[in-house]
């Protein structure tokens, strides 16, 4: 006879779940309310149905910002995932140097997001910035405030420097969880380092890499503080991502209806692609195990 599972532990986390649900549902319902009404004052509002959603979907600036957002998130995943795995593979496996490497890796993650933008503004200045002054001495003209390409390069360097440590730490945790018996069997079979990575390390890191992909996609798709501080969405609209454009509509223009519809569409896009990524990675993992 099987021993009954004790479910009383759920009572310990139930207050937290209720608090999170309460704090999330009320703002969400407020946004939904704004998205279907045209509000002129506290007591003057008109139901408009899907008018704001249609306006958002037909806005060419929003579509352009969406493509820029997809490009940015795609580049982030293509660069940070392989680089993070390589850093994790190069880290020491034991000894005091492990603690030193972990602390150094974690430092960028401890810096507030708005400070990150300020750091890179100073870093790229041609008069006092290390990167900007070095490029100027080499005769290279680099100005992220005037050139869209320079703005994208600076933004990508900043993002990779800031968030690759997260991928590296997750990958390192996955590597540490692999039993030594796997490596001993590989040495007995005479497996190469590439074979060990392909058939032992990569499959065992699949779980943490799935988490890394989902976290980095969602974070990069929601990025706001860093590009806003660094470029303000410019030059022109070259780095105006969805979050920056949403803030311009909601705060700058105070169009609460379109902004609410925009935010709901924004949320659904993130939810849809995160679900697609998760399903694809899960199916790949089942295929490898089969």
Q: Helical percent range?
A: over 70%
The global form is: globular
CA gyration radius, whole angstroms: 24 Å
Could you name the CATH topology?
A: MetI-like fold
**Which CATH architecture is right?**
Orthogonal Bundle
* The CATH homology group name: MetI-like
* Parts with pLDDT < 50 across at least 5 consecutive residues: none
Number of helices: 13
Describe the protein in words.
The chain starts with 8 loop residues before the first helix and ends with a helix. It has one domain: MetI-like fold, CATH 1.10.3720. A hairpin with a 2-residue loop joins strand 1 (37-41) and strand 2. The model has no long low-confidence stretch (mean pLDDT 87). Helix 3 (60-90) packs across helix 7 (148-176), helix 7 (148-176) packs antiparallel against helix 10 and helix 10 (206-221) runs antiparallel to helix 13 (256-289). The chain has 290 residues and is mainly alpha-helical. It is built from 13 helices and two strands. Strands 1-2 form a two-stranded antiparallel sheet. The chain is globular and about 75 Å long. It has helices at residues 9-35, 51-57, 60-90, 96-110, 113-123, 130-137, 148-176, 180-189, 193-204, 206-221, 225-230, 242-252, 256-289; strands at 37-41, 44-47.
């Amino acid at each position: 006879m099987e021993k009954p599972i004790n479910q009383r532990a759920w009572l310990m986390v139930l207050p937290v779940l209720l608090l999170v649900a309460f704090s999330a549902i009320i703002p969400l319902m407020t946004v939904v309310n704004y998205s279907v009404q045209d509000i002129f004052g506290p007591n003057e509002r008109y139901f408009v149905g899907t008018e704001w959603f249609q306006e958002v979907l037909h806005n060419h600036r929003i579509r352009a910002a969406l493509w820029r957002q997809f490009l940015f998130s795609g580049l982030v995943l293509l660069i940070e995932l392989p680089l993070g795995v390589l850093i994790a593979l190069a880290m020491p496996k034991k000894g005091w140097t492990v603690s030193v490497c972990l602390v150094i890796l974690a430092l960028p993650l401890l810096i507030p997001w708005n400070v990150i933008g300020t750091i890179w503004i100073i870093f790229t200045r041609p008069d006092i910035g290390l990167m900007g002054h070095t490029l100027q001495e080499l005769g290279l003209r680099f100005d992220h405030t005037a050139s869209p390409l320079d703005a994208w390069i600076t933004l990508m360097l900043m993002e990779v420097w800031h968030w690759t440590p997260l991928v590296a730490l997750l990958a390192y945790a996955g590597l540490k969880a692999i039993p030594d018996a796997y490596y001993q069997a590989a040495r007995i079979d005479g497996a190469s380092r590439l074979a060990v990575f392909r058939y032992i390390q990569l499959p065992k890191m699949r779980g943490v890499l799935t988490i890394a992909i989902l976290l980095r996609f969602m974070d990069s798709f929601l990025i706001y503080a860093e590009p806003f501080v660094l470029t303000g969405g410019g030059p022109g609209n070259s780095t105006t991502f969805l979050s920056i454009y949403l803030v311009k509509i909601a705060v700058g223009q105070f169009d609460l209806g379109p902004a609410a519809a925009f935010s709901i569409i924004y949320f659904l896009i993130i939810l849809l692609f995160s679900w697609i990524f998760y399903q694809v990675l899960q199916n790949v993992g089942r295929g490898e195990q089969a």
